[in-house]
């Protein structure tokens, strides 16, 4: 009688796994007690539902656990799950209570099985100096029914099992088996179907991460790719972190022959799911796995001739090996580890887009992480979202400059869940130097939150506070400003590119991206006028980008670059004109929050009216997507507050003993008096007016500066 059960035995009960010979061996205790534990790995299949071996602590019923001890009234028996030194052999009634209270009641249940707590020395310790490996006499623990893990805490064991279930690993030991088709969910987005696991929104616990909240992010990236596909075709694009493959499938399904899509992922389960999702959308799959020497082409779907290449390798490896026109990076967390590889082989005038989801560090909640990842010192400010976008662009600029490439920022969006940056690559040392010069430090006043970029130059200034428009340093004690950065000091948007993105969003019916793109166009132009011209079919090949008309759909192939050849003089002149126009029409950096700078005791005007007031004062002004109550303007903070105070109305707060006095709605005072006259109205006069039943309250539209603190 051995421990190995023949293959012919097929039973769902685990009793057949523990023959009498093993029970007799357990009576001896001591060192012989470890022998059957080591031979458990040799047990063959005993269940069609669970083709794997199980530890003796995993049973269906308490009676099965008692059978292991072979309870008899006249003999003392040891506990099968405890060592001899922990629980000595005893009679049946005491051993029964021990098994029930200590092992069975604290067990973890999974599909009819109970994983009881085990006190045996099952986990090997680290090798000692001699080199041998002994068995550790550890405390109580659980044995996983799915894998070979030993978990100490019961709550950790429950979480461990749940992670197996979410990943579909419920079928065997040591071998990952995908979940059955019935456990998959089919999600449809932008006419694209994808299969996802039930825990698809938890990136730490699933191989196929799919976040429905990132739909807007996917639409913006699609619009950027569609604009690039209109410039030159076909283009090779890479989704470096495919997960479910939803983004690459949308590219191939809508843009078709204009793009050659490559979806990459380093996880085997994700690659398998990407292939299945390709077949679900009737796409052909060209499979290329680095570990295999040959390429496998799988054709499924005769209705559509589009082919998607699916690769399984590290993102850095594939970007080092191949060249692409469009690269999108969307890892879990920061993207700085992949920037050098992305800019190494990206083609000239290509586009690199990256989505950063490490918002805790970018939004200055974990400042030490931002310093470690981006080499940037930041603090929490009212404009923290734009600060995050400029931090990412600065890291992108330095990575591109190391590869002798410059960048042109086309789009920078910072929302609640992510920071999206889209840049165009300009090859050559001159664009690289020009881009690197735009990475500068920011001087930020911590009292009034005024900010200004540090002037260019290597000379150390005696008093850097003089660069700030405010006088907080002179009126406040100590140091009032901090040095933030290095940050990107250039423009965050390209007006012409955003307009073409808006046209693509309208053409493909991307409803969620259209309002945001309209706001971005106004923000890029720094204007409140929302005139979005729709080009006629005859003008499709003339669209304005940064003041220069460029050719788009109807252009000839001569206007664009052929890979591997030098740029023509016309393209160079066009680039210079576009850059000059961009510098002249560049939007002002950063914005002010109207609530942050509101005056105590005053009712602010409506935001749209306040924008008109600032515009009438001669300043450029627009709203911003970074903050719904933010105002992007080139006005200094002092002028911003002056205009805000001028058009704010006071909120009356009664200070008399009689209580607050309310002004009737029909009473209006048209006569204006000076603020000094209003302050000189003493309490006695107000009291007399109150006694006579007349409420005397004076409103004015102009207040001196010193009244703001009152």
From TrEMBL:
User: Which parts of the sequence are annotated with region: Disordered?
Assistant: 15-50
- By its UniProt entry, which SUPFAM superfamilies does this protein fall under? S-adenosyl-L-methionine-dependent methyltransferases
- Note the Pfam families from the entry: TRM (PF02005)
> One GO biological process from the UniProt record?
tRNA N2-guanine methylation
Reaction(s) catalysed by this chain, per the record, are:
guanosine(27) in tRNA(Tyr) + 2 S-adenosyl-L-methionine = N(2)-dimethylguanosine(27) in tRNA(Tyr) + 2 S-adenosyl-L-homocysteine + 2 H(+)
Q: Could you name the Gene Ontology cellular component terms for this entry?
A: nucleolus
The segment(s) forming the C2H2-type domain are 144-164
Q: Which GO terms describe its molecular function?
A: tRNA (guanine) methyltransferase activity; tRNA binding; zinc ion binding
Which portions of the chain have biased composition (kind: Basic and acidic residues)?
A: 26-40
Keywords tagged on the record: Isopeptide bond, Metal-binding, Methyltransferase, Nucleus, Phosphoprotein, RNA-binding, S-adenosyl-L-methionine, Transferase, tRNA processing, tRNA-binding, Ubl conjugation, Zinc, Zinc-finger
Superkingdom field: Eukaryota
Compartments in which it is found: Nucleus, Nucleolus
- What PANTHER family does the record point to? N 2 ,N 2 -DIMETHYLGUANOSINE TRNA METHYLTRANSFERASE, TRMT1-LIKE PROTEIN
Q: What is stated as this protein's family in its record? A: Belongs to the class I-like SAM-binding methyltransferase superfamily. Trm1 family.
Task: Indicate what this protein is called per its UniProt record.
Answer: tRNA (guanine(27)-N(2))-dimethyltransferase
């Amino acid at each position: 009688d051995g421990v190995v059960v023949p293959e012919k035995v097929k039973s769902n009960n685990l009793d057949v796994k523990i023959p009498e010979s093993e029970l007799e061996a357990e009576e001896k205790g001591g060192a012989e007690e470890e022998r059957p534990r080591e031979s458990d790995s040799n047990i063959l299949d005993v269940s069609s539902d669970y083709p794997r071996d199980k530890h003796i602590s995993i049973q269906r019923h308490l009676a099965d656990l008692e059978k292991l001890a072979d309870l008899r009234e006249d003999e003392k028996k040891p506990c099968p799950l405890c060592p001899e030194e922990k629980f000595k052999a005893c009679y049946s009634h005491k051993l029964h209570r021990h098994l029930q209270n200590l092992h069975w009641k604290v067990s973890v249940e999974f599909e009819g099985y109970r994983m009881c707590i085990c006190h045996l020395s099952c986990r090997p310790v680290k090798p000692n100096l001699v080199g041998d490996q002994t068995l550790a006499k550890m405390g109580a623990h659980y044995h996983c029914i799915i894998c070979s893990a030993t978990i100490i805490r019961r709550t950790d064991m429950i979480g461990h099992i749940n992670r197996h279930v979410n990943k579909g690993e419920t079928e065997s030991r040591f071998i990952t088996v995908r979940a059955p088709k019935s456990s998959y969910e089919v999600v449809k987005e932008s006419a694209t179907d994808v299969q996802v696991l039930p825990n698809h929104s938890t990136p730490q616990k699933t191989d196929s991460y799919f976040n429905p909240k990132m739909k807007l992010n996917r639409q913006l990236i699609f619009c950027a790719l569609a604009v690039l596909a209109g410039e030159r075709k076909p283009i090779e694009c890479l989704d470096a972190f495919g997960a479910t493959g939803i983004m690459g499938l949308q590219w191939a399904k809508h843009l078709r022959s204009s793009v050659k899509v490559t979806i990459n992922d380093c996880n085997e389960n994700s690659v398998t799911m990407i292939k299945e999702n390709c077949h679900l959308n009737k796409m052909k799959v060209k499979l290329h796995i680095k570990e295999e020497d040959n390429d496998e082409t799988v054709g499924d779907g005769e209705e559509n001739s589009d082919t998607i290449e699916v690769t399984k390798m590290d993102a850095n490896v594939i970007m080092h090996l191949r060249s692409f026109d469009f690269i999108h990076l969307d890892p879990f967390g920061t993207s700085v580890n992949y920037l050098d590889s992305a800019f190494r082989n990206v083609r000239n005038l290509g586009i690199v887009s990256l989505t950063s989801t490490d918002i805790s560090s970018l939004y200055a909640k974990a400042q030490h992480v931002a310093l470690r990842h981006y080499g940037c010192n930041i603090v929490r400010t009212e404009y923290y979202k734009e600060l995050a976008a400029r931090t990412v662009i600065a890291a992108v600029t330095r990575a591109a400059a190391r590869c002798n490439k410059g960048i042109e920022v086309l789009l920078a969006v910072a929302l609640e869940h992510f920071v999206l940056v889209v840049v165009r690559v300009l090859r050559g040392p001159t664009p690289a130097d020009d881009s690197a010069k735009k990475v500068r430090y920011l001087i930020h006043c911590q009292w009034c939150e005024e900010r200004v970029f540090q002037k260019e130059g290597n000379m150390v200034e005696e008093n850097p506070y003089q660069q700030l428009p405010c006088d907080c340093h002179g009126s406040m004690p100590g140091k009032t400003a901090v040095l933030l950065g290095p940050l990107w000091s250039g423009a965050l948007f390209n007006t012409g590119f955003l307009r073409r993105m808006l046209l693509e969003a309208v053409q493909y019916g991307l409803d969620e991206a259209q309002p945001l793109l309209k706001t971005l166009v106004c923000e890029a132009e720094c204007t409140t006028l929302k005139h979005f011209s729709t080009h006629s079919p005859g003008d499709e090949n003339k669209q304005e980008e940064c003041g220069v008309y460029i050719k788009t759909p109807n252009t000839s192939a001569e206007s664009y670059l052929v890979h591997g050849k030098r740029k023509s003089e016309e393209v160079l002149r066009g680039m210079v004109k576009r850059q000059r126009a961009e510098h002249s029409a560049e939007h002002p950096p950063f914005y002010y929050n109207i609530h942050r700078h509101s005056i105590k005791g005053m009712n602010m005007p409506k935001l749209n009216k306040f924008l008109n007031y600032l515009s009438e004062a001669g300043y450029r002004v627009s709203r911003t997507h970074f903050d719904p109550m933010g105002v992007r303007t080139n006005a200094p903070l002092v002028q911003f507050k002056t205009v805000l105070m001028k058009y704010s109305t006071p909120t009356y707060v009664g200070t008399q003993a009689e209580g607050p006095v309310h002004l009737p709605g029909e009473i209006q005072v048209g006569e204006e008096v000076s603020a000094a006259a209003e302050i000189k109205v003493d309490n006695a006069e107000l009291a007399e007016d109150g006694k006579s039943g007349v409420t005397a309250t004076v409103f004015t539209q102009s207040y001196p500066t010193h009244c703001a603190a009152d």
